UniProtKB/TrEMBL annotation:
The gene is LOC108682864. InterPro entries: Arrestin, Arrestin-like_C, Arrestin_C-like, Arrestin_N, Ig_E-set. GO terms for biological process: G protein-coupled receptor internalization; signal transduction. It comes from the Eukaryota. One of its GO terms (molecular function) is G protein-coupled receptor binding. This is Phosrestin-2. It comes from Hyalella azteca (Amphipod).
Amino acid sequence: MVVSFQVFKKSSLNGKVHMYLTKRQIRDFVTHAEDIEGAVLIDPSFVGDRRVYAQVVLRFRFGREDDETMGLNFTKTLCVETKQVYPPVEEHHATEIQVSSVSLHIERVQSLPSDELTKPPPHGSITRNFLTCSGTVTVEVSLDAPVYRQDQDVTISVNVINKTSKDVKKLKVKVMQLSEVPMFSHTQRREKTLSKAEEALLLPPGACTQRAITLVALVPPKRAQGMVFLQGSLTQTSSGASLAQTTLLPSDVCRSDVFGILVSYIVRVKA
């Protein structure tokens, strides 16, 4: 029996150190992650009595590379783990002058826990009163599924109850991407509308109505792509852009300690 599989290779510029990985997508199961398996091939005559280290480095870019001038750098790096691979030892502590001379990008993708699919669809309601009229308006909203994939229809059920003395004339519904960068002292938050719909209601006092509106979470046109977070790619030649997936965190992880971007999606309804 012949077993075939793909191997990824990266070599140093002088061809003395080679790194091989069996995969470049490391799956994240929220509570744990897959191991990174690979091998390092070195030239002993080049290494001599020096040591060779393998590191897992997280690199976060929060600005465009084209804007980096005069030493300004829009990236932050965090060494997640370091291990001496030659000569092999059980553990070690790397110093600042110890550099891995070969780097190969890997991609960590999250796997959706099965219990997320069995959760009830999201729903919510709000009742508001106003200074310009008496009574209240109640808006109830529910979705048809707990989880959505990109380009999948999102059916939004809206129930509006008008108990004021004025007409409710419009209904606005949006699907939005929320993003947060908690590692900065001044936490940056951003909201971006992906798709929206607006309907005329003309709902008189004492009346109620039910509406079902279908929207799709789509990547905005190229001129507005810089306003949303997209899924990263291992190669620059990958065709098509996809929205970043919702960030799932274990219950014991503090949001303010996350080194990266927290992404979520909401449906916003306004009458």
